[in-house]
Amino acid sequence: MATTTLLRKLSKLKLTLGRRRPQASRLLGAIRRDPANLFTLTGMKPDRWQAEVIRSGADRLLMLASRQAGKSEVAGRVVLKKVLLEPGSLVLILSPTERQSGYFFRTKVLRPYELLGRPVKPARQPGRLELELSNGSHVVALPDNEAGVRCYSSVKLLVIDEAARVDDALYHAVRPMLAVGHGALVALSTPWAKQGWFYEEWKSTRRWQRVRVPAALCPRISPEFLAEELESKGQRWYDMEYNCTFSNLVSSLFSEESIEAACSDKPGWF
């Protein structure tokens, strides 16, 4: 009787797996045809800029965006696009703290993966900061710790969250990881001070696709809320949080423009 029951359960399991394989194959095909389906298949309608980003396939991408504009949502789906459609991909997610890395991983990568129904099954139970798939792809979320990230190599995708606040030393330590695997680099942030690698790369002429998304372009943020924030925060902080404007250092006595004027070789009064 026990053997009969076991055989019956195995038969049901085979039938279930047989149904899931075509379903997973169709889902991966839909994502391959249009990566924006990573939003629609998880119950979200992407903003136009989000759809453009995930379809672009850019290997060097800077996203300068307002708070709550949806930059983490699209970055998380860029991660899923890589690991689901390109077997054997190692993806690293870096944030200023472990707490931020873990939150990004759980809410922007693992949750959509579960909503998709795990179209590529995990090789083992997902961890707190890690997902390994049966196709050989691997996602690891890490904090801003230069010494702790140097062990990785052949990275296919590197995502740097809150990039304007990630230390320069970490940025320069992780870039070589992309060399052998010809990996892509995606950095997303609200602006901060006029210093650091993210600011320098944003204003440079180097090879980056740059996406700027102020709050006025986000349909989920109301004009009334923005008006309240402006009144509460003042223009300087409001511009950093919502208008994608880099600021002079909060503690600076003189502005960057004043310092540049003082160092000018043009004749004038000082």
In short:
With 270 residues, this protein is of the alpha/beta class. Helix content is 45%, strand content 13%.
What percent strand?
5-15%
Radius of gyration: 22 Å
The main β sheet shows up as: 7 strands, mixed
**Helix segment tally:** 11
Number of domains: 2
Share of helix, binned: 40-55%
H/E element string? HHHEHEHEEHEHEHEHHH
- Rounded average pLDDT: 86
What is the total tally of β strands? Answer: 7
Oligomer: single chain
The third-level CATH topology of the largest domain is: Rossmann fold
CATH architecture of the largest domain: 3-Layer(aba) Sandwich
Q: What is the CATH top level name of the largest domain? A: Alpha Beta
How widely separated are the two ends?
97 Å
Q: Catalogue the unreliable spans.
A: 15-19, 251-259, 266-270
Structural class: alpha/beta
Biggest β-sheet: strands ordered side by side in the sheet: 3-4-2-5-6-1-7
CATH superfamily caption of the largest domain: P-loop containing nucleotide triphosphate hydrolases
Shape: globular
Tell me the layout of helices and strands.
Blueprint: H1 2-33, H2 37-40, H3 48-56, E1 60-65, H4 71-85, E2 90-95, H5 98-115, E3 130-132, E4 138-143, H6 146-149, E5 157-160, H7 168-174, E6 184-189, H8 197-203, E7 209-213, H9 223-233, H10 235-242, H11 256-262
Parallel strand pairs: 1-6, 1-7, 2-4, 2-5, 5-6
Antiparallel strand pairs: 3-4
Helix pairs in contact: 3-4, 4-5, 9-10
